[in-house]
Amino acid sequence: MLFLPETPRYLIKKGDNARAARSLGRLRRLSPDHPSITAELEEIRANHEYELSLGSSSYLDCFRGSMVKRQLTGMGIQALQQLTGINFIFYYGTQYFKNSGIENPFTIQVITSVINVVSTLPGLYAVDKFGRRPLLLWGAIGMCVGQLIVAVIGTTTTGQDSRGNVIVYNETAQKASIAFIAIYIFFFASTWGPLAWVVTGEIFPLKTRARSLSISTASNVSFLYLVPCFLALLIFKKSQWLLNFVIAFVTPYLVDYGPHYANLQSKVFFIWFGACFLCIAFVYFFIYETKGLSLEEVDEMYSECPSARKSPSWVPTMGFRERQRATMGAAGDTNEKTATVVHSDSSVA
Fold first, then answer.
1. ∠ CA 189-143-85 to the nearest 5 degrees?
2. What does the pLDDT read at residue 236?
3. 96, 287, 290, 321: which has the fewest Cβ within 10 Å?
4. With contact defined as beta carbons under 8 Å apart, do 195 and 136 qualify?
5. Is 184 in the same domain as 305?
6. Is residue 337 part of a domain?
7. Are 102 and 42 within one domain?
């Protein structure tokens, strides 16, 4: 973080135009006085002035008018990211592997963690090459298939004795199950893991950005906890971690054996499979393609493109500077016509 420049939009908001030019030039690898840097800063400044003209914002503004679609998209992608089951693997993977009769469960957990880290790298490369929608869609499909196969293998090749101890009928199948867990982690770490944060960082306008992102981050849990999420957001301002704790607390009751436990064991992967299937539909219907677009162009796309499915083919037509000029021109024409009418009436009089 010490080497990262401050965001140009923040500096424009603070009125520090010189630092904004240097910051944007560093990010674009161009001179601060380069024409393209000047043009982009003018677009950012015009956007900022336009949003200032709309007045200040509150949390309620995040759910008004055209913001509803964007806010629910941000909340939905963060909530579904948690429902894919990734925290089950990393919080309880060692115990799950042990319960499944797998030898050296801790070693398997270390391997899955390494896969998680390494798999992030292709995602960083692919996000701007292929776009957000394709990666999220194919990532959801890959996770969905992986979770389903793990659930089927675990359900059909293991059993339990009267004390709840797991009996493994097919060790080869259990090894295959580990392989598909690794495949699931690859799809998550290269798509939904990082891209949920990319999408929420791109879809909100400057006016409500801080509040919209705080609500979306607080929704980094299950839809079942959205109500306490908002309460925690207002009270603790740390609701992501509070509700992350809730999920961590509930999960053992789903998988463990004993009184008042669901004892799902491998069947819990059917729940994650269902959530991943929802992820496919969510991406198809709600995720707009923001690849290669500035934040100002994303605003324009949401106002002009009614369907997320059509967003990949959408092309920017007019920026905020052009809109301002058009508005000022229209206002000038109106004033001129009004003056002409008044002059004509005066002449008649």
1. 75
2. 44
3. 321
4. yes
5. yes
6. no
7. no
DSSP 6-42: PPHHHHHHTT-HHHHHHHHHHHHTS-TT-HHHHHHHH
Q: What is the pLDDT of residues 149-166, one digit of tens each?
A: 999 988 888 777 777 677
Residue 286 confidence (pLDDT): 93
Q: Which residues contact 267 (CB under 8 A, 6 or more apart)?
A: 151, 154, 155
Asked if 135 contacts 114 with a C-beta cutoff of 8 angstroms, the reply is no
Q: What is the CATH number of the domain that holds 157?
A: 1.20.1250.20
CA distances 196 to 21, 77, 201, 306, 315, Å, are 29, 6, 9, 21, 23
Q: Tell me if 304 sits within 8 A of 314, measured CB to CB.
A: yes
Judgement on whether residues 226 and 297 belong to the same structural domain of the protein: yes
Over its C-alpha atoms, the chain yields an Rg (Å, rounded) of 26
231-268 residue pLDDT tens:
444 444 444 455 566 666 777 777 777 777 776 778 88
258 CB-contact burial (10 Å; exposed 0-12 / middle 13-18 / buried 19+): exposed
The C-alpha atoms of residue 116 and residue 143 are separated, in whole angstroms, by 13
Q: Tokens 């109106």 appear where?
A: 334
Query: Do 93 and 194 fall into the same domain?
Result: yes
Token pair, residue 310, equals 């059509």
DSSP structural state of residue 332? H
| Beta strands 166-168; 158-160: pairing state | antiparallel
Return d(Cα 304, Cα 142) in angstroms, integer. Answer: 32
- Residue 217 corresponds to which tokens in the numbers above? 């981050």
* CA-angle at 335, arms to 349 and 48, nearest 5°: 160
Exposure b/e, 146-174, CB count within 10 A at least 16 = b: bbbbbbbbbeebbeeeeeeebeeeeeeeb
Q: Which amino acid is present at 230?
A: F
The rounded distance, in Å, linking the Cα atoms of 102 and 95 is: 10
75: amino acid identity, one letter: M
Q: Are residues 28 and 106 in the same domain?
A: no
72: nearest Cα among 226, 207, 274: 226
Is residue 133 within 8 A of residue 312, CB to CB? The reply is yes
Backbone angles phi, psi at 84, to 5 degrees: -70, -15
